[in-house]
Amino acid sequence: MRRPFRPWLRPILVTAGLLCLILAVLGVFLPLLPATPFLLLAAACFARSSERLHAWMLRHPRFGPILGDWESQGAIRPGAKRAATVAILISAALTLALTHMPRVSQAAMAASLVGVLAFIWTRPDGTPDA
Fold this sequence. Notes:
Blueprint: H1 9-29, H2 35-47, H3 51-59, H4 64-73, H5 78-98, H6 103-122
Helix pairs in contact: 1-2, 2-3, 3-4, 5-6
């Protein structure tokens, strides 16, 4: 584990990790709140501040294997890629249907989402989903 080089940084990273973990759990249930980025950020914070919390995340039956794939290979499982794609497309469609965004905002949103999807689909595949 890489410890922060400043002792005062540890409690900040633990707090940030816990906050990100809470947001990730909320993101599982709330549309438009992404769970995965908060989960990855929580793991990164804990990797630098708390061996115990980082190990707990890696051992977790639900997201531990996914985090392990990301940390070891920068990989995203095929099922997670598909789920992310569906969630992004539904969110974009709902946003466009329920708001009156200017065309420039629509174009910016589309470009951002295409970039996110390109990033997701160019990552190596992790362990196949069961």
